Input
Amino acid sequence: MHVGVIGCGSISGIYFENLKRFAGVEVVACADLDLEKAKATEIKYGLQRSGTPAELLADPNISIILNLTPPKIHSTITRASVTVGKHVYSEKPLGLNTQETGMIVAAAQAKGVRVGCAPDTILGSAVQTARELIDRGSIGVPVAAQAYMLSAGHESWHPNPEQFYEKGGGPMMDMGPYYIASLVTLLGPVVRVSGSARATFAERVVTAPQKRGKRITVESPTHISGTMEFESGAIGAITTTFDVIPVPMPHLVIFGTEGTLDMPDPNGFGGVVRLRPKGKDDYDKIPLNFPFVNNARGIGLLEMVAAINRSRPHRASAELAQHVVEVLTSFAASAEQGRHITLETRVDRPAAMSKSNTEDSINE
Output
């Protein structure tokens, strides 16, 4: 299938590099509001053409839109793409609220097209290895999960840090999708959440060289802690922050009746998975026995194409992304309203990945 990319920012590079070597898709065009950036991207990656988003959406030769625009316009571009009958794979989050994500899911169903959404790290070797351990009972019955994403913020290194402090931004919407999508893949859907949130600093001062000295007004909570009750009965807790000086903490831990899983950063595809069985004083390092260990961003799109060709559900789906967004936004809603939030969406765990895949194709 021919792919057109809308959004030629910093994240686009890894997609262009990876999709060049994946079988089953060909990136033929790119678009950006900055036409010079789009043209430079076309030349750099040897594409057939570049132009405006409207021109790309009107191109009948393109079957799939890869949406790499800033988060605040993800839903706008995705809905526009679906409206003209194109499949879409979007960077996370699918939208900034459940109203946006609900309209996308409904529109895709009405048009008979597929919508997929990052993170596709849930298809990577670390999460899939951990899932295999859970599914075969290596930790017994999952009891609880604990997740941490600790940071002092983006203004010291990111070239455009403003987006992380705007409405709809913040650490939970930025990094939470990796953690929540992983937890749903491992433990199943969430049924109820609660949360507490604060914006510690009303203003952030950029120290990154590109915009050094610029002052950013903070419009979103920047320290959020939440609890989750899973349909399975497990209880989870997560803290994401842009407000602290980090200390070493586990990225993601799953506790079971017969053991504990210590997992690597869910923003990656590989890393070290450790299992501490009941009765042992230390962890066993578990070999990663699934493909996609390195940065394989783009495999979610590739897996969606394979699913379209075989008329089966795809794994990094709009429905999963919709559920993730509801979890993320419900933490803040709980903090504002001072009550638990019962979720309206529900999604099954995505099917486990196959070990027969290779690093350049998904065939099952």
Observations:
- The chain has a mean pLDDT of 95.
- The longest strand covers residues 142-150.
- The longest helix spans residues 318-337.
- The two ends are 17 Å apart (CA to CA).
